[in-house]
Amino acid sequence: MTRIWRIETVTDAARARIGVARTAAAYGVPTVERARLATALSGRLRQSLAKGGTWVLTLTASGPPAGAGELHAVLTPSPAEGAADRTPWAVTVPCPEPDGVSDTGTVPDDPAGLSEALLSADEDTAVVLDRLAEQEELVAFHRVELHQTNQGVLALHAELDAAGRAQREAFAAERLARNEAENARRRLTFLADASAALNASLNHEEIARRLPDLLVPRYARGVDVWLFDHEDERHRPAARPAAAVRAARTGRPQYAADHPGGLPGVDDGPPSPLDPARPLLCVPLVTRRAPLGVLTLSPPGGRWDPDDAVMLIELARRAGIALDNARRFEHNRDIAEALQRALLTELPAVPGLGLAARYLPATYGLNIGGDWYDAFRQRDGSLVTVVGDVTGHGLHAAMMMSQLRTALRAYAVDGGSPGRLLTRLHEFLNHLQPDLFATAVIARFHPEEHTLTWAAAGHPPPVLRLPDGRVRVLDAKPGAMLGIPLRQEIADHTERLAPGSTLALYTDGLVERRARGIDPGIERLAAALGSFGSAELGADLEDAADRILHPLLSDSERDDDVCLLLCHLRG
Questions:
Q1: Looking at the whole model, is its pTM more than 0.90?
Q2: How far apart are CA 136 and CA 157, in angstroms?
Q3: For the chain, is the Cβ count within 10 Å smaller at the N or the C terminus?
Q4: H helices present in 216-305, as ranges
Q5: Residues 6+ away with beta carbon under 8 Å from 485
Q6: CA distance 212 to 558
Q7: Could you read off the pLDDT of 131-185 as tens digits, one per residue?
């Protein structure tokens, strides 16, 4: 189907527009598309009329044999007008019913019919407006939904932002708590390690020396330890900070600086005139009885962390206890050593027999007291020598050693062999001191008969050097330790001695080492004794005693008393 309209006037344009609209309606073009076609055509017609002349509108319906088709409208100038400069206009719309449609595009020429056709064209506009109203309502609904969605999104963003801030604050609090816990763990670890280092020594001077090594530079830039009763006059400082003096008098920690320290349990004071720019923390070294001194520290930075200050005050308290324990130990040790030395015997002069003895107190720990030696003559002219060791240390061991020595001398007045004397000492200890034990070895010399009778009770065996340089360990079966809860008869052993023989009696402190036991030490003692010549031992037995002790004791710290008694049978 093809329709053609010639357009010269507005009426022609109206008739052509109405014809196109009716044809589109007849071919099933949707209302909205039909309105768009009519609106576009009207606008083009107005432009064409404004240009003037004659225009030709051609409307063609085409389509496949079956299915949807198209309406194709073309507006061109009339060929007779010679419109070479007028551009044609064309538009195409789909139509679902391209076939079998009657010609409905005719418009009557009378004005009444034309008017009716124009009015009926408003029906499409009304439909479009209804559609537009529906779309506006839908747009308004979606606008409300969008506004509500935006409000929800804003609220969600606010919640997320608040949750993010809360999470960041929680992370910051967690980091702070973790750092505080790590710092607390570090302080506790340092306090435990420092306390162990201070309590490992029983020498108050060494403890005072260790404090600066422990604190500098981690917790202090400088450390001064002021001990009240142990100042070296040659190194005593000219003056003490006033804060240290106040700490000594009041027993409270003092902080001296040009600004408040704010440290818990610490009194603030003015800066020290000795060094006003340096803050000082002065902590008394207190004990259960009285202050021992003052620990003065300067901070590693501008000031102390309050928790570090609390830890330093606690360390000073522990250091005071360690110093007090060391002083008490040293006092008891000095008393025990003095008592021990006072109770040791002056060796007698015996014709034909040389004697040399050494007693060395322990240099490590409170292991003083309990080791002793003795030598005394009997009525028959023989000489009794003894070396013993009481279990335990300190004043109690020294006192018990004195009782054993006195009891032995009393029993020896009645005579009796070394084994019998040891048996009676065993009964003495078992009866009077059931919880105390001792070891001993007794050797009796008969210089005129050149015989040696000896007996041992739980004690290291005597070592005998023969005149030809050979050395024997007299390890015949000894008795059990003195004082153990059993009955025993300790046997005697006899040796013939040739002139030039030397017997060594000793305690386990000379030969026993924790890492190696006692046997290697006895072998070393035998080797040292065998290294002398008979002339050397006879000429200077005292020097020989020193030369034996040196190699045996110089390679380790002496943690026990040492007794050595040398008996040399002269020719």
A1: no
A2: 30
A3: C
A4: 242-250
A5: 430, 434
A6: 27
A7: 888 888 888 888 898 989 999 899 999 999 999 999 999 999 999 989 888 988 9
